[in-house]
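Progress against Task 2.4 (sequence-to-structure conversion) is shown through the following example record, which the project officer requested during the mid-term review.
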Amino acid sequence: MTANIDPISRDVFQYEAVSVAEEMSMALKGSAFSSIIWDMLDYACGILDVNGNTIAQAETIPAQLGIMPTAVKRIFDVIPLSDWNEGDVIICNDPYFGCTHTLDIVLFSPVYFEGKIIAIASTVAHHIDLGGKVPGTEAADAVEIFEEGLRFPPMKVMDRGTPNDIIFAMIERNVRDPEACAGDLRAQIAGCRMGERRMKALAERYGADRLQALIEASQDYGEAYVRAALANAEQREHRTSILIEDDASSDEPMKIVVHARIEDDNSLTVDFTGTSAQRQHGINCPVASAIGMTYYAAKVIFSPDVNQNEGCNRPLNIIIPEGCFLNPISPAAVSVRHLSQQATADAVLKALTPLQTKNASAGCHVSFPTFTAGGVDDRAQALNYAGQHPYFVICDIISGGMGGHRGGDGLSAIDTHGGHCAILSAEVMESMSPFRVLSTKLVPNSGGEGQYRGGLAITRDYEVLSSALTLSGYLQQAGEETAAWGFSGGSNGKPASAELFPKDSEPQKLKSKFVGLKMAKGDVIRLTGCGGGGWGDPAQRQPERVAADRAAGFID
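Structure tokens generated for the chain above:
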């Protein structure tokens, strides 16, 4: 069928499909209630074919985009595509059913044309709270998934266009901000509906048969491109490992082992055998997330300029032993899985970098310092429409440095790999919660030294303005052995940290995981990201670059 598709028609269609996903993104963002979506951009949109394979993605969160095919194929086992009716929307957030953690709710809706399903629209969004033991649901010290909030098995949240009121009633009774959660869920539905309309318009233009041929041609091209890149790799095999902090169930760090090997057929095997066993904490990573981050890392190295679709993933053979912390056995807790999935991307990239250095960088910040706080905002001026002091839930994420690379220094103050979230605007935080952002600054000397230095981290101070609140958070890359790695003689980035400055007692450095902190008015918490690793011998750095860094205050 694809023999009649010329390259120009194929490429035009690929960008048309991407534009569909981007319109979905704008619809979701513009309709969302929670700042973690409309300001921090913690959501994803994509289009899949009828077999659950990716056609196109919006430039949103890789950690969420990468799980869509795994999730929908698991859902097919419970709700076959033949049972998907026009107007349906399927919901699922079960980490043991192809999803990430419970806070990332996944929706799928069928795109009908001339009585048949021709594609599937999908949205994923991080909800600010889904119940559980602490505000924001994420708790690094959780032992079982039953502590991690509402879990939706595959079911229809919309049935032939009619809302499932039971699901919305469950949300209303079990989450800390039901208005925001229900509103964000409706925003996701709006994103799916936009995808349905735009894909149907493409089908009306091309016809169903030619549309299918264009989809297949695009995916075939993605596969051919990646195999050609693998055939031209600088090196065929590399094995490496990284460590990440536990600090929840043990002081012993966890190890990710990656053996990357290009096979004779120009496929890529990525084997995680040797990775640490699952732990009794919430830092375990659902296997769908580990798979998605491996897809991401391979794309970064071998096909950065190609629109991502399922064809790019076909050459990958991924081996993740059951029972390791990247493929835990239920009911292991997983709510803080973002740390381990970021570390997965970091480890795979460390293994792939020697295979193709031209697209690689030294180790990047994956420290992801974050907190979520909640409580009653009892400030005198904080009243809701009913004249009551409102319950609030707020979240923020701190950025760090990208690793230096063969062509230049690493970017500063960015979220990397599976995240790509924005830092919460100070004005938004102060208008929606009892926090004052005291400062947001780059951290001098935080980037690793090298011919090309690592990017700088940022640090941010927050002051509590209400009488009491509960705060939980986490980070990684908090020590020298876990910090962003240097490459080819470059040095590691400066580690991340979290510090507490109580109003009436001595400052204290927090461990990399902190759960249920009780904070009072005047207390200050400081989060600092990790700097990026350096690339190449520092002695080879051009003197004018050193002088420019010193003049800008990037180094002493």
